[in-house]
Amino acid sequence: MSKKMNAFYAQSGGVTAVINASACGVIETARKHKNKIGKVYAGRNGIIGALTEDLIDTSKESKPAIAALRHTPSGAFGSCRFKLKSLEDNKREYERLIEVFKAHDIGYFFYNGGGDSADTCLKVSQIGDKMGYPITAVHVPKTVDNDLPITDNCPGFGSVAKYIAISTMEASFDVASMCATSTKVFVVEVMGRHAGWIAAAGAMASTDDNEIPIVVLFPEVEFDKEKFLAAVDEKVKKFGYCSVVVSEGVHWPDGKFLAETGLKDAFGHSQLGGAAPVVANMIQDSLGYKYHWAVADYLQRAARHIASKSDVDQAYATGKAAVEFALKGHNSVMPAIKRTSNKPYRWKIEMAPLSKVANVEKMMPASFISKDGFGITKKCREYLAPLMKGEDYPPYKNGMPKYVVLKKVAVPKKLEPFEL
Amino acid sequence: MSKKMNAFYAQSGGVTAVINASACGVIETARKHKNKIGKVYAGRNGIIGALTEDLIDTSKESKPAIAALRHTPSGAFGSCRFKLKSLEDNKREYERLIEVFKAHDIGYFFYNGGGDSADTCLKVSQIGDKMGYPITAVHVPKTVDNDLPITDNCPGFGSVAKYIAISTMEASFDVASMCATSTKVFVVEVMGRHAGWIAAAGAMASTDDNEIPIVVLFPEVEFDKEKFLAAVDEKVKKFGYCSVVVSEGVHWPDGKFLAETGLKDAFGHSQLGGAAPVVANMIQDSLGYKYHWAVADYLQRAARHIASKSDVDQAYATGKAAVEFALKGHNSVMPAIKRTSNKPYRWKIEMAPLSKVANVEKMMPASFISKDGFGITKKCREYLAPLMKGEDYPPYKNGMPKYVVLKKVAVPKKLEPFEL
Fold first, then answer.
1. CA angle A159, A162, A168 (to 5 degrees)
2. Inter-chain contact B292–A297, Cβ cutoff 8 Å?
3. Nearest C-alpha of chain A: how many angstroms from B181?
4. Mean pLDDT across the stretch A10-14?
5. Which uninterrupted H or E stretch holds A48?
6. Which chain B residues are Cβ-neighbours of A288 within 8 angstroms?
7. ipTM
8. Is the C or the N end of chain B the one with fewer CB within 10 Å?
9. Is residue A54 flagged as an active site residue?
10. In CATH, which of 3.10.20.70, 3.40.228.10, 3.40.50.450, 3.40.190.170 is domain A5-142+304-360+391-401?
């Protein structure tokens, strides 16, 4: 690409504590190459912003505001759950993208998301060949689920892992204090519908310095009620208490989620409960132990206040590398994290072809789950530990984090409206 | 008291992120007065440890271990839910206490807890007069519920408030990112069965710098479904999203908790759900908005990783003052926090008579709740802000907090066993 072109950047799918750090990496790096990249236009609410020509002019944001993205959780430009159909199935959307890109001199496309978004980015990267519009599309990895292939880990995961490990440790200390006369079992539900990476992090609460009795329920392991209750009972009898980390994706052998209780309310609506209360009630009914339960939900993926430094650094680095790859003319790629050493933890950024990333889901390897199916192996610990390493505290004002809210100045529209 | 006596210290009721900071204050201060106080014996699992002669010799703990209590959540010596009956109703227990105190030369009694524990401490303080055993009993305030009278606030509350305010802010940033195409309402359930102090803290997520649409459901305000749904709907229509902070104690006009769903499982057991899923389902059924919900439970009161510095300082100071009061011969008292200035925040420790503390519950003043019943007033903000001020991070090792686990060496028993 010889002509100086503008860049499009957007955030997609469920947001994380560090996706804005990637945005920061993209925008700060683009600003350093003003001879090659004009402005960075962010899509308001992901790819939808490109389709509706709803673009945010990031050049209107101050340097400190962009820098503050590094310590601000969530998606500063708005995210979306929207998957482009294939070129064959919905040519109209691709033609609209080209129309918007042309109207705003956009030659670079940076899409920040997980597996589905990698697929969207892959499709956009093919516009050049298939529809004759030159675009350089680079995917910036992001997902708390840690399920993208090729990359050693996904930005967003390390911070959730740290949050869940710390929360499990803290709550376990709590129940250990109470167990003599009160609560004996604490159950926390974590995210991860298909892959048990986040649940695995809960087991990291038990350390070499202090063993904590924890039973983990993975989506990768079919739920066996008897075995599970026996495992909890054994730990309560030995330690006086037990913590349970249950993934939202835990299911019975027939594939039905534990969270689908089959309960109906007075109006006949089915009760959409969490897995944690189901497991907790099960423990009380069968073992008689007093319990407490928590559902972390958004708290876990938004918890920038206790983000992992490794994670923040990698989120920024992948955003930066995406721009550098694009400037070198690489299309249809993704910066992937390559672990080069465990102790000390060292990593570098490599380039992965998007065709090998899109629509591939990386599950927990069997070698990471302990034989009884309720814990993690040493290998898993060695994998997880560096990802949770280091603290990266946001600045505070009056006891509250100083997260930035951008001005989000709209780029004037040039085209007719588009119906989604 | 002229003879040098040992001290008894114990933790009672639900633990907090900073109750061990009070323990640290008690033990470190006692160690500074070795001419007057011998050893500090901690009760294993609260007052039960005194009754069963299950004492922990804190002199066997190193100076760094005791110092580390300041940054360790939960009750390091074990807590209990156990209320002494009155002297008239259960003289046997008081006689046993005296027997244990005599056997171990205990002349000081420090009890660290909330309203019920203040009552226990008050009863022990009367042993001297009523049963002829000289003991100096001082209560050390602790409760996340912030419901003790006289004291401006209770150690333990400021840290929960900070955690809930930050978590609500972070999750609100998250839902704000998602609301265009996905989740529009986020519901978080917080502790506080009778008093809405913790729920009020959720409203602190909205600041002068960034307005966040939040609807708070207080236990002090009878639940009005229509008004509530209208409030949520209005905010979603204006902001695109809304966060709801619901106290576990929210109830219908007839006094029934929202969490009592009346739901039954396949075996006819009633489902002990939280208030959050009930509220969330209500929103979807009536307004059709996609929701997410979280239940913070123990995570909130154990979250030492984001404790308030004000809170940690005050927890330590009340422990320290308790020993100093006792050394001056004050019996049946409690160190209370007196706010002397709001900006800058200044406070000092005063002495409150236990007779005025025990069994009195301090609710949110009506002037702290906004007219519509769904928010907090400026006065409430001014009260809460200083309590959440400052961060007091624990040290970390390999990405995890370095919380201390004490050796808890038992004091050799001298008496016959006692049946509880």
1. 140
2. yes
3. 6
4. 96
5. helix A47-51
6. none
7. 0.97
8. C
9. no
10. 3.40.50.450
